[in-house]
Amino acid sequence: MDNGGTISEETGEFMRGTRRLFMVTLRKDGSPTCHPMAAFYGGGALYLNMYRASAKAKNLGRDDRIACLLTTPYGADQFKAALYKGHSRELSNEEVFADEVPEGLAWARNPRSGGSQEQPDIPPEEERKIGDTAGRIKRGKRMIFEVSPDEVGMLQDVREA
């Protein structure tokens, strides 16, 4: 397990190559809960895109501690996973839509971007269409959290430690 936020090349490469994530947060009563969702890793941090009204967002708003398990896709021949523990922070729209952002954030603000820096040019009348992630973020329906790492490692390494 890598401590202090250092991420090995092997672990970073694995996390950049997967979108499957299980996020563990704490409920209001302190009990843990797990949510499957999409992962966007790149630039040394993990980015999570979610609805502002979701239980996930409310949990992170109360307590920024988070643990994530990034895994191979369902049905993969060999199961692999990375454990990513840290603290989350909601990003402002200015941060999300800055001209230059880390690859993981580029993916999170526009999952169809292929991780490129290009931002969708969305006319106001188009922003309300279903499937428009950037428009939903701009309108405050969705939000992006950046998760800074405290401990990261491949699951096999964690088991052996």
**Which residues sit in consecutive blocks of at least 5 with pLDDT less than 50?**
none
Number of domains: 1
Supply the CATH architecture: Roll
Quick one: overall form? globular
Main sheet, how many strands, which sense, barrel?
Answer: 8 strands, antiparallel
By CATH, the superfamily comes out as Electron Transport, Fmn-binding Protein, Chain A
Radius of gyration: 16 Å
Structure explained in plain terms:
- With 161 residues, the chain is α+β, with helices and mostly antiparallel strands.
- It has a single domain (2-160), classed as Electron Transport, Fmn-binding Protein, Chain A (Pnp Oxidase, Chain A), CATH 2.30.110.10.
- Helices cover 24% and strands 35% of the residues.
- The chain contains 6 helices and 8 strands.
- Strands 1, 2, 3, 4, 5, 6, 7 and 8 form an 8-stranded antiparallel β-sheet that branches.
- A hairpin with a 2-residue loop joins strand 4 (40-42) and strand 5.
- The longest helix is centred in the N-terminal third of the chain and has 8 residues, at 9-16.
Could you give a short description of this structure?
The chain contains 6 helices and 8 strands, in the order E-H-E-E-E-E-H-E-E-H-H-H-E-H. The chain is α+β, with helices and mostly antiparallel strands and 161 residues long. The mean pLDDT is 86.
